[in-house]
Every structure is written in C-alpha cells, then in structure tokens.
Amino acid sequence: MRTSIATVSLSGSLTEKLTAASRAGFDGVEIFENDLLASALAPGEIRSRCADLGLSIDLYQPMRDVEAVPEDEFARNLRRAPHKFELMQELGADTVLVCSSVSPLALDDDDLAASQLARLASLAQDFGIRVAYEALAWGRHVSTYDHAWRIVEAAGHPALGTCLDSFHILSRGSDPKGIEDIPGEKIFFLQLADAPLLAMDVLQWSRHYRCFPGQGGFDVAGLVRHVLRTGYDGPLSLEVFNDVFRQAEAGPTAVDAHRSLLVLQEAVGVGELPASVVPTGVAFAELVTPDAEPVSALLGALGFARTARHRSKPVDLWEQGEARILVNTGPAALPHSRLRSSGGTPINGTGLAAIGLESPDPRAAARRAEALLAPVLPRRRAPQDAPLDAVAAPDGTELFFCASGRDPELADWRADFAAVPHEPGSAGARIDHLALTQPWHQYDAATLFHRSVLGLHPQESVDVADPYGLLRSRAVTNGDGNVRIVLGVGAAPADDTLHAQHIALAVPDVVAAARAFRAAGGGLLPIPANYHDDLAARYELADDELDTYRDLGILYDRDAGGVFRHCYTRTVGRVFFELVERDPGYRGYGAQNAPVRLAAQHAGR
Amino acid sequence: MRTSIATVSLSGSLTEKLTAASRAGFDGVEIFENDLLASALAPGEIRSRCADLGLSIDLYQPMRDVEAVPEDEFARNLRRAPHKFELMQELGADTVLVCSSVSPLALDDDDLAASQLARLASLAQDFGIRVAYEALAWGRHVSTYDHAWRIVEAAGHPALGTCLDSFHILSRGSDPKGIEDIPGEKIFFLQLADAPLLAMDVLQWSRHYRCFPGQGGFDVAGLVRHVLRTGYDGPLSLEVFNDVFRQAEAGPTAVDAHRSLLVLQEAVGVGELPASVVPTGVAFAELVTPDAEPVSALLGALGFARTARHRSKPVDLWEQGEARILVNTGPAALPHSRLRSSGGTPINGTGLAAIGLESPDPRAAARRAEALLAPVLPRRRAPQDAPLDAVAAPDGTELFFCASGRDPELADWRADFAAVPHEPGSAGARIDHLALTQPWHQYDAATLFHRSVLGLHPQESVDVADPYGLLRSRAVTNGDGNVRIVLGVGAAPADDTLHAQHIALAVPDVVAAARAFRAAGGGLLPIPANYHDDLAARYELADDELDTYRDLGILYDRDAGGVFRHCYTRTVGRVFFELVERDPGYRGYGAQNAPVRLAAQHAGR
Question: Which cofactor does it need (chains A, B) (predicted)?
Fold first, then answer.
C-alpha cells in the first residue's frame, strides 16, 4: 500500500520535513496548514519540490469548525473555503480534511451538519477537491467515527467522504469493527497513530503523546484490518503529534515512522518483508578504545584470556567460557560512523561499538534488516576479511549476524582471527546482557527496531532514579534469554553521552568471580554500607553472607522466580562490566538496585 | 513556623541535597530512605552533617505495606521494623512515615489495621519514635485522610498519629475542612505539595508532576488554614516528586522551594513578610553588548535618540517617547554574574541584562525581594553612582527598583547620566513587554518569583510550536498592563541559549513605525506570503491593507477585545525588537503568530 506522513509528525522546516519523508521511502505527505503558512515556499514551489522528491500531496489539513453552525457563520465559512481550495489546486492536493467542530457555536444537529457539509463538498467539487470529514475525539457534538459516518452518509454527496484516525477511534475505546459497515470508497483517508495507554485528558494525550504504530498500546493493526475489509485503497498515513519527535532530527524520525508502517503492513498481511530471523545468542561484543591497556587489564582481571588476534587489523579476541569480547584499537572513525553523528552517540574513548549476534540465517537476517530500513554495512571491511552480514542499529551500534562455525558454507567471523598462545580463561561465563545508552529522542524507535528487525521481545519500560534525574530503560530479549539487550536513555536529551554502557557477564558464582577479580587487581564499585543494612532488614540473610556482600559490593534482588546477585567493576571510558549470578527463574535486571549503583558511580567520579 | 523539605524533592547526592536545603534557609529535612541507602555517609555522619548545617531531621520515610495484613506477614514486618528504628536513633529522627498499604495482601479491615498499627507504635515507642500514618491517594483500602484518621483514632496509641499530605488529599478532591476534626497533637506531620490540574492517573501525577505550593492548581493555603486551626505546630514540609526538579541544580530548586513556603505562610497569615510593592511601569531596559555599533544602528533606525551618557561607565541612554534603553558596553562580568552560571543564562554577545521597574517604594520592594530570597545587588556599583535598590531574578536578570524623578528624597537612576546633544527621537513609543528566556528547569520558579516578589499576575502558560520543538511561555503583568514580562522556555533543557530575548515597543501606528524603520535602514523580519494569504482567508481585510502587511511583514491577531498588529526586527546577538500596535482591549501577545515568526527567524539564520 502507499505510505504517507503528515508534516506535523516531523521536526524542522517544511523543506526538511519533505526531504526526510522522501529519503525514508514515503510515497506521499499530508501538508499540515501551519507548516505551509510558516514556509517561504509558495504552494506551486512546494508542489514542485514534492514532485522532485517523488512525493504526492495526499491531504491538506485541517479545516476546522466548519459545520453545524448558524447560517450566517456558515456563509462566512463558505466564503473562506475557496481560498483554501485554490491553494490546494496550486499544491496539487485533491483531498481536504475537515475536523468535527469544537466551536461553541456548533449545534447538535446532524441534519444541519450533513446539509452544510454537502454544500461545502459541492463547492469543493467545483475545484476538483474531495472533503474528508473526521470525528475528533473531543468534537463538540461529533466525537465518534460512526457518528461522523452517519452524517456523511446522510449528506449523500459524491465529493464528501469520511476520514478515519486510529487515535480518535481507539482513544475513546470505540469498537473499530463497525468500520466494516462503511463502504471503502467513502473512506477518503486513513490516518494512523498509536499512543501509550495513559489515563489522561484526551486532548493533551493526542497533542503530546501520540507515537508511531507499534510503539504504544493501541491495536492499530486490528483497526487497519477492519479498514482493509471495506476495500479502502488510499494510503496508510501517519499523523503523530509528539513532543519528542518535534525536537528530534527529522531524518531518523522519518525512518522510524516508515519502519512502523512496514511492520504494520506485515502484521495485516499486505506487506512483503523477509521473515524475521531471531538471534539465538551473543557471538561477541566489540569494544573500541584508543588505548588497549586499561581494557586489557580489566578483561584480564575478569578472567578473560587473549586468545586470538585479527589477521589484518588491530583487534584482539578475549574469551572466557562462552563470553567473547573484541578489543579494537583501530580508528574509531569506521566507514559508517556518520550514523553516529546522525542521532547516534559518537564514541569518545572506550565504548561498545558492535555486537555479534548468532543467527540461524545471517543473510536472511540482514535482508530483513535492510527491508526495514536498517543501514547495511559493507560485508567486507577489508578485502581479506570474511564476508559478514552487518547492519547499524539506530544508536550506531554495528550488529553482525554470525554463524560461528555452524556451517562451512557460511562466513565465520573467527576465520579472521589467528590464535595466539594463552593461558586458559575462567570457565562458565557468558554474556548475560548488554546495556546500551540510546539517543534520547529515539527510545521508542530503538525498541521498534529491536523488535521488528531482530524479532526480540520488549519488556516493560522502567523508570530508574539517578541522583540527577529519572532514567528509563527497557530490555529486549529473545525467547530463551540468551540474547538480552537493555536499551536506556538519560534524563534529558543532552545526557546521552553521560551514561555508561555496560556488559553483564553471567557467572556461576558471583562471590567467587568478584573475589577472583579483586585478587587479580580489579577494582569493584564500592556500595554504601547503608544499602547492606537495609538488605538485612528486608531479607533474612545470614550474617556471613551479608558480610560477604558488603565486602565485595554485591547487590541482591529477588522476585517470584528466584534470586539475582550482581556487582560492578569500575568504569573504563564509557564502559563497565557487571558480574551477575541469576537464578534461572529470575526475570529482571536488578532495576531496584540501580539507583544505588548510579549514586555509587557518580560518587566515584 | 518551621520549614522542612524531603530530600527526594532535590537533585543530587544526599550531601548536595542537605547543603542546598540549609543554604536556602530550611530548618529541617525529611530523609527519603533511598537517599540514605545510596549515600556513603553512615547514619551518624548524616546526623552530624545535618547538625553542622543547622538542619533537624524531622521525618524518616517511608515504611510501606505494614498494616492490615495476615498475622504471619505482619510478624515479618515487626521483625524488620527495629532495623529502621535503630537507624532512626542513629540519625536522631523521631518520626517515621507509614504509608497506607498498596500490597495485594492487605485486607479491607480497619480493626486489623488499627491493632497492627498500635503494635507497631508500641515497638516504636520503645525506641522513642512516633509513627505517622498517611493515606496514599492510591492506597489499596485506605486512600483518604479521614479514613486514615479513623484508624489512628481507633488504635488509640500515644505514639501513633497521622500524617497529612496536601497532594494525597487534594488530588482525590477530598474536602479538607474535615481536617479540623482531628486534634492538632494527633497530626504528627504535614507534607505539602501542589500540582498542575491534570486529568491523569493519580500515581503518575504524583510521581512526576508535583510542584511547590503556588505553582500548581491546588488550594494548598486553604488546606493549611484548616490544619492550623487544629493547633498543629509541627513543620511545614515539602515533599515533591518532579521530573524536572530531579534534573535541576539543587541550589536554585531549594531556594524556589523555600520561597514557596514563605509565600504560603504569608497567605495563611503566619509569616511576616514586607508587603508587596507592585511596579507601575518600566523605567528602562538595559542591553549589554561587546559592540555598541549594531545595537546603536538598530535603535537609531527604530527612532530612538541617544540622549545621555553615564557619568562614569560606558553606558548610553537611548530614548523614544516613554521607552528608554540603556546600552552597556562595559564588561559583561558584573559583580553578580555568578548568578548566571548558577542556573541562569550566561550572556554571550548582546543580551538583555537588566530591567528598571518603576516602583512606588523602591526600598520596600527590595526588602520584600530580599525576604523572599532574591539575591540583593550592591546598591552602588561605583562610589559615585546613585544608590539604587536592585535584586537578581532567577534567570540572572537584574531588576532595579526605580523612582524616576518622582521624589527628591529617592535616588534617581537618571542622575548618573549626563545629557548629550541629540535630535529628538520619535514620539509615542513605550515598552509594551519584555520577553525573557528562562533557564529550562526554572519555568515554574520564574513564575513564582515574579508573582511573589514583584506582585505581578501570571497568565496561562501557552505552548508555542517552534519548528524544532514546543516552547512554553507565560506572561506576568501588573494590573494596568504597564508592566508585562513574558517568561519563556525552550523545548529542551539545552535550548535556553538558543532562543532570543526581545523588547516589544508599543507604537501608535505600527505601519508608520515599520516604514520609518525600514526607511532608516532597519531590517524587518520577512514573513512568508503564505501567512498573508491565510490572513486573507480568515479575516475580511482590505486588499491594500493586506498588501501593506505583506510588504512590511506585519502579523495580525484579533480577540474579543480588539486587534493586535506586530512586526519584528532582525536579531542582534540574542536580542530583537518587536513593534506592536495594540487595541486597548486586546489581552494577548499574538501567540498564534509565534510559530510563523519562529520559523522565519530560523530561516534567516
């Protein structure tokens, strides 16, 4: 189906919005009147610009407070309308959105509404324009889609149809099944938006908190299925008012938006996307650093052994059990590092730059990612390298799809490495989870990316009190928990470089691992005694157990499924490690201990 | 009365919070448990620190899910309680907050709740501790203050009382009059918070949107009056969970907080503040600039004449009718410029640094400001200067209280200036309003400051769509509109230096003024033709009138009281001028045209 986006959904000047929509692959746009008024481009120039960008202008919006008003008021409305219809002719837009009236002058009189809308439609028809009438959820007398449709039906004018908007329908809890009673050719337009399920005033909810389909709590796909059954063949168009998107760069927002429509189309069975290929494990995590020494010392103390060296690049492989870390001391300015400056976080000093994900079918995984607008990275970074499939996540992290040694037909990243003599590392460790700080404006985008591109399951977003603001984080995991990524954002847009990334290592015995780390010269994050005093009050722990936790800075959490014990290393650059011992049934990440950890990290700076 | 603040209301480490509370003049604090847990200070050290800072520890909070649970669960709670009571002894805190249970285990059984609370109180009493039981608005079975009080009354234990919290009471719409039925000595604590009137889930509202009394929509003063009638003599204590305050520097937040309690005490008749002295006009606005040339050219083109020169400093006075602008090319690092680095906006290049306000009693105005924690500026900047009363606003703007030539007994700022030969400036102009960008985290603080310190009336906050995010602004005015200040904030915390300040000049004829400005070489902000095309659709304006507006970039607005016509100059540094022609009945500031103006300003960069 054709895809469209309202200009109000994107940040910037009209030109920036149109460019971003085009680059992200949209077929058309809705022009929001205020964006036109504020633009220095004349309507004809906007039309040309859109044509150059391959965009149709699918809707001009909105006209307000038109219908069901006293005749003198309506006469004024009719006198004003030709101004807009002429403008639309210059734009080359053939459909105008009329929102149900919120005016105190509006009368609760469906016959009057119908007859006035028919008169407006007659006038519009003279200009070759169609009128799409939409029920605002807070319309004065008309606030439901079925009511708006009854008025359109009563008007019986060929140039008058209805516009459906998923936010207005689902925010009121209306049953969208009734949409199927509307003939498809009378649905002149379909606007889509999702929203988090907030108990709040619907106008404020609509104006500030809408999001793209799949990022909120509405069943937008279910609604679209009803619409498709009517035979509707217009565009799927996004109209999202969101305070965050207003501030964010238009380019990444438009990509996120278009991705949401691709996923939606897949969900309703009209899109053609390569099937999802869910990763089964973490092959490696790659750190880039200008100075290998501090990272090497940290890895050594953690029990990693340096097992191999890249054949052509300054990259070392460190291993411990099933955990593999690459340490890259090459130039941090990788070929695709422009991604980082476009919404992503530039890597200064030591950072987590790439993740290798074990994939049942790396090529297929990359094809799906590409179809879902993930930038594809060059398969070979150097001529002699194994041809790996890799894409960039929204935060700039490189994701490599790996088939480590499973199939001789498939490239193996390890073939690029030559073994070096080494002592064996500690056994039993694996990567429990990776925590990545996201660009602040792209928290929901990051979730949608990991869900749709990688097929990971998002868990609930949690607020975490840092001493200097509320952070948010959300885990995305595969089915068996062998891939867990925690996506976090700081308290404010400027904070994304302030907060560290981390690698959590699952170990069989966190006490033993922490002791060994310290014995090897590693620095553990000290945890205040007050925390452990409180543990003593909350849980019935043996005194010597508590003393051990105190000594090592081990934190403790428990849920219905089991116990979670964890501790932290000091930070190197932007990266630190966590050692975790997780009961199989425990589902979380020790979020309730995070404020204490964060305060301790601030105190140590 | 004694004033206190919960540590959760402030940002930073516990040490930073305590320091900020003390410096702002609080008498005590509530220690929020998580702040203690995350602190490296032992309880005894916290006690000493508070003593050194002159702070008592008035409350330790909270204990949760204690009461009305099955006996085995309650037995566990009782086993845990001594840990906390011992901790409180070390802290020197004698009152603990117990919140009504939200546990799914809690039973709807007031007798059980009363008996268990009495048992807890008996245990507490052994440690010399009192238990203050509070109804959370979202408590499972106990969610209103009168219900909590009935349980406390039924328990009949001397160490058990109630804690009242204005948020929990007013957010549920409870009538606070019933508070008077509670004996004052059984009100063990009073927590105060205001909140904007939002229709939203009460838990989210409470956790993220509380604000200080006078910054929201609740009648906190009314509630406090009921409490005082009971004979309550404990502290007035602020407990505010607010996402913005969590991020903001603790120092300015604590000052804002304490100011709110001073104003509240005045409102309920228990404080002693010098009476409010409302300014009657704008004596001058002062621009600082490293280069007088661009500003002088702009002022000259606007019809200002350079009429006088400061006797000892590089400051020129420019006049036009009743509008007076000082242009200061001296060092921008004024004695109090440290204020700007503490939450205020540093002035880079050309900025609006000071405002002279005509005051019926400058000394009294300064005394009130000082009593309300405004930093007082040196009366004489140089030995020979007139001794003026001046304070700093939260954004660092200097406010001078002036009595320009009204009373020979009072210092006159104009005495510092010597006339220079000049052509007369244009007649008829005066300063309509001054628009000042506020530090993002201090929007509500700025409003409270201008209301309480200056006695100005805040109008509604309005959202304005900038192409790159939603801005907010709120006007504060005196009764007759001769003093109007518009306080604005950017879309995100980092934006405060991006947005310009401006001086709006009221002129008798904006068309004539704009033409004269252009004829004198001034640059008007061009407004897109699309805007004026839309004006033609919305209003029945004569064609030649519209052509004039188009030509000059004049914007047009109309409300029930009249018409507002305005246009803008190009920006110099951070400052631009607006020319406005305001019908006497028009109340606004052309906010609906602001998106077009902002887009035009972005386009011109």
Answer: a divalent metal cation
